[in-house]
């Protein structure tokens, strides 16, 4: 199959991969300062937007696009560091709920601020409408339920 690409443009997959590598490398510098991995960061950010009672650990893993064992390992490490707490759900004792501690919320706020500062120039290259459009399109590409 031969895919035609207009002159001066690169294939979409190549552009997405290049941008991903660039953003990931820059993000890693900030995360390293806080002893966080990329997977750990995604877990914490999902908990930061969770309801007040927290979320089941398996749901956090799904939302962060992590394996269940990775989420469990990270939650163990973050609990030891005082960034989150885990407890059994009062409604279903088989479920483990995870919730950020105040220290965890401060950490997410601090890291998010540094990342926003780091990527602000990149995002500023797009208008507000372009940012919304790109966000909507990328979300659609990532959402397996929206394929089609």
Task: Spell out the helices and strands N to C.
Answer: HHEHHEEHH
Output mean pLDDT: 89
The first-to-last residue Cα distance is 21 Å
Question: How would you sum up the global shape?
Answer: globular
Uncertain segments: none
Total individual domains: 1
Structure explained in plain terms:
- The structure is a single chain.
- By secondary structure, the chain is mainly alpha-helical.
- The chain has one domain (16-142): Arc Repressor Mutant, subunit A, CATH 1.10.10.10.
- The chain is 61% helix and 8% strand.
- It has 6 helices and 3 strands.
- A 3-stranded antiparallel β-sheet has the order 1-3-2.
- Helix 3 (57-63) packs across helix 4 (68-80).
- The chain is globular and about 55 Å long.
- The two termini are 21 Å apart.
- The model has no long low-confidence stretch (mean pLDDT 89).
What is this entry, summarized?
This protein is mainly α and 148 residues long. It has helices at 12-33, 38-48, 57-63, 68-80, 102-124, 128-142, and strands at 55-56, 84-88, 96-100.
Note the topology.
Layout: H1 12-33, H2 38-48, E1 55-56, H3 57-63, H4 68-80, E2 84-88, E3 96-100, H5 102-124, H6 128-142
Antiparallel strand pairs: 1-3, 2-3
Helix pairs in contact: 1-5, 3-4
Main attributes of the structure:
148 residues, Arc Repressor Mutant, subunit A, 3-stranded antiparallel β-sheet, HTH_MarR-typ, WH-like_DNA-bd_sf
């Amino acid at each position: 199959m031969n895919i035609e690409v207009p002159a001066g443009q690169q294939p979409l997959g190549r552009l997405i991969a290049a941008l991903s590598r660039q953003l990931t490398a820059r993000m890693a510098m900030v995360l390293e300062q806080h002893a966080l991995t990329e997977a750990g960061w995604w877990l914490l950010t999902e908990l930061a937007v969770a309801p007040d009672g927290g979320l089941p650990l398996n749901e956090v893993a799904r939302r962060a696009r992590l394996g269940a064992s990775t989420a469990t390992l990270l939650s163990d490490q973050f609990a030891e560091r005082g960034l989150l707490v885990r407890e059994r759900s009062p409604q279903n004792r088989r479920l483990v709920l995870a919730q950020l501690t105040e220290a965890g919320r401060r950490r997410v706020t601090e890291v998010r601020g540094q990342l926003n500062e780091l990527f602000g120039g990149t995002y500023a290259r797009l208008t507000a409408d372009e940012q919304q459009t790109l966000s909507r399109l990328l979300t659609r590409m990532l959402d397996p339920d929206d394929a089609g």
